[in-house]
Design a protein that fits this description.
CATH architecture: Roll
Helix content: 10-25%
Number of helices: 3
CATH superfamily: Electron Transport, Fmn-binding Protein, Chain A
Structural class: alpha+beta
Shape: globular
Strand content: 35-45%
Largest sheet: 9 strands, antiparallel
Radius of gyration: 16 Å
Distance between the termini: 36 Å
C-alpha cells in the first residue's frame, strides 16, 4: 500500500502543492463506481496525515459503492480563482484504492478507510500564468510534468 507519507518522501514538492490545495477548503469531491459501473460523485472530507483517511456514514451510497469496488478518485475543494491568476493555487486530484482503517477513538459511527495512493495530480499555471502545468506522480514512474498553451 502506498501511503501519503510515501508520496511526500518520493515527490515532496508535488505532495506539498497537493496538500496545500486539499487543505484550502473542507469539502472535497469523491468519485465512486455504482453497481452498474457508472460514476457517482459525493461530497466528502478527508485527512492528509501519514495516510489519506476518509470516513463514511453507515448505509451511505458511497459506502455501498466502495464496499463493492474500492477504486476511487478524490478532487480538492473547488475554490474561485483570484482575479490575479498568478496567485491561483490550482487544483489537485488523488486516485487509488480504499483499504479499511480502524475507527478513530473519537470518530462517529461509520466506516473508515485509508487510500492506497495510485495517482497524485496537480494542475496549475506557470509563473507567468500563461501556460497550464500538469504535474503528476504514479508509483514506480515518479513525477512527470506537462505544459500546455
Amino acid at each position: 500500500m502506498t501511503r501519503w507519507k510515501d508520496v511526500a518522501a518520493e515527490a515532496p514538492d508535488l505532495a506539498a502543492l497537493a496538500r496545500a490545495v486539499f487543505t484550502a477548503g473542507t469539502n472535497k469531491t469523491l468519485a465512486t463506481l455504482r453497481a452498474d459501473g457508472s460514476p457517482r460523485i459525493s461530497a466528502t472530507e478527508c485527512e492528509l496525515g501519514d495516510d489519506v483517511t476518509l470516513g463514511m456514514m453507515p448505509g451511505s451510497r458511497k459506502l455501498l459503492d466502495v464496499t463493492r469496488d474500492p477504486r476511487v478518485a478524490l478532487h480538492s475543494p473547488t475554490l474561485e480563482p483570484p482575479s490575479d491568476m498568478q496567485q491561483w493555487a490550482g487544483d489537485a486530484k488523488l486516485a487509488g484504492v480504499l483499504e479499511p482503517a480502524p475507527r478513530p477513538e473519537d470518530g462517529p459511527p461509520g466506516a473508515y478507510f485509508w487510500l492506497d495512493v495510485r495517482e497524485v495530480v496537480h494542475t496549475g499555471l506557470d509563473e507567468a500564468a500563461r501556460r497550464l502545468v500538469v504535474t503528476s506522480w504514479h508509483p514506480g514512474r515518479g513525477v512527470t510534468r506537462v505544459e500546455r498553451d
